[in-house]
Amino acid sequence: MARIRRCSPFSLAAILALLTPIRGSAGDDRAERDDHGSQGAESRDMKWIGFNDLQARSSYQPTLHKQGGRYILYVGHHTLGTNPVTGAPLPSFNPLTQMNEENGTSILDVTEPKHPRYLVHLPVPDHNGGGAQMVRVCDGALLPHADHSKVYMLRTYSNSAHEIWDVTHPEQPVGVRTVAGGNPVIGAQTGTPGALAGTHKSWWECDTGIAYIVGRRGTDTAAGWKPGNHIMIFDLSDPANPVFLRDWAMDGQQPGSKLQPHFTNAPSIHGPISTGPAGGVIASANPGVVPERVYFAYGTGATGIMQIVDRKKLLDPSIPATDFTTAELGHWVMNPDNGAHTSWPLGNIAVPDFVSDPNRIRDFVFVTSEATAHFCAEPRHLSFLVDVSDEGRPQGVSTAQVSAASGGKKDDENFCRRGGRFGPHATNEEFGPPFYEKIVFVSYFNAGVRAFDVRDPYRPRNVAFFIPPVTANTDLRCGTLDNVPNVCRQVVQTNNVATDDRGNIFIVDRANTGLHVLRLTGDAAKIVGEDDR
């Protein structure tokens, strides 16, 4: 049962709300209790094989990288928060250094997925709780102008900068372009001249060095930019010598532009995903991928747009950097209640039911809209399969959903009443086997991680899931329930997900519960030709 607390003086209504039992799933998503450690996880066709508490740090992006014969997991963390009831700082103790540290990046060796080994925590010492939500990693052997013996990590530095570290020896990161070194890729120390006003989820092409960095300069408002982050494109083919190329945004956000039709504000970028150049690493290894494309997700949780951009034109120096339209191939406008958090290109898939259709092979993008309110105090957020075969006229063809009612066995017990957020957040972002174009994993906050079979994009099916149990580290999430304000519940908030080529799934928790390593079992494992190892 979830641990429940109240954040303000009790009333009878509050007591009744707090005593509402939290039960397992039922119906189409009926759960089986997982006996791993007798912790009472909920799952179907997905098993728990490994765990690390990540020093009880709120976690955002896990990035898996193969290096030196090992599998290394880099986990970006949110800014260190406080207990919503007491106001006390959340745990920040690093037993490896015997010091309290502001949140940054956790680096783990997951070569043995059943026994993740914590290597180092690299803090962001900005005296404001730190945080390094986003992390990307590239081998110098791929980057055109880098030291081929090195491995490099690009990460955010709170909301004020982006920096690069040498993680060739992941136990001992060495600064390359850092805030502490006074030479970050862009930005500066929090609260100082030159600091950015925002950062978020970037993308780095390891075979070209092109990086699509998300952020907002501290001078953008004065320069006429509308609110929110946009893209700053850099050439990081030599990580020690970044070269700025241009800005990019949805037309309507840049200075002097007009808003998109029917929009009252310009949707800001959440994050990009690039398929890289034709003949590049991604396109060569994944025949279904459409190369030379960048998919931009705007709006995050409302007034969303998914944009398809011609990568060649975007990077063409002969096209003026003030031109925010020529490179666009098309965009898909979402309903105002949903936004685009992640736009994950699935590439060309032969639709099973289109047996005799000459257009049987269609190009798809998987788009998630992020749930942000506790106790479902917002419109329902969904994931969408978008047919982009005609890139100028993208069409939404189906939705991938989890029923709120499947979170309980009675009408008054469901995922909305469990507390915290319920709904999609992000997908995994790994091309290649065993999962690509077969299963997409979606982090679903209090509904754990969901595996959607997308082999028929017109009929995505939730074929497996795993909901971690709360632990002593799991933080509280507070909101209004049944008109009672400040109802607080201890509930998992599965935040992001990554996978590897061995069939392992890595999920991390926004509410400080840690890292879980998972594998598919049963019928779900058969989809990708896996067994129950």
Describe the protein in words.
This protein has six helices and 36 strands. The two termini are 29 Å apart. By secondary structure, the protein is mainly β. Residues 1-38 have low confidence and may be disordered. A hairpin with a 2-residue loop joins strand 5 and strand 6 (70-77). Helices cover 6% and strands 38% of the residues. It folds into two domains: 1-6 and 27-52 and 332-533, no CATH class; 63-200 and 208-248, no CATH class. The strands form nine sheets. A five-stranded antiparallel beta sheet has the order 2-3-31-30-29. Strands 11, 12, 13, 14 and 15 form a five-stranded antiparallel beta sheet that branches. Strands 16, 17, 18, 19 and 20 form a five-stranded antiparallel beta sheet that branches.
Give me some keywords for this one.
533 residues; mainly beta; 2 domains; five-stranded antiparallel beta sheet; globular; disordered N terminus
Low-confidence stretches: 1-38
What's the end-to-end separation, in Å? 29 Å
Radius of gyration: 22 Å
Largest sheet: 5 strands, antiparallel
Oligomer: single chain
Q: Kindly give the count of domains.
A: 2
Write down the overall mean pLDDT: 92
Number of strands: 36
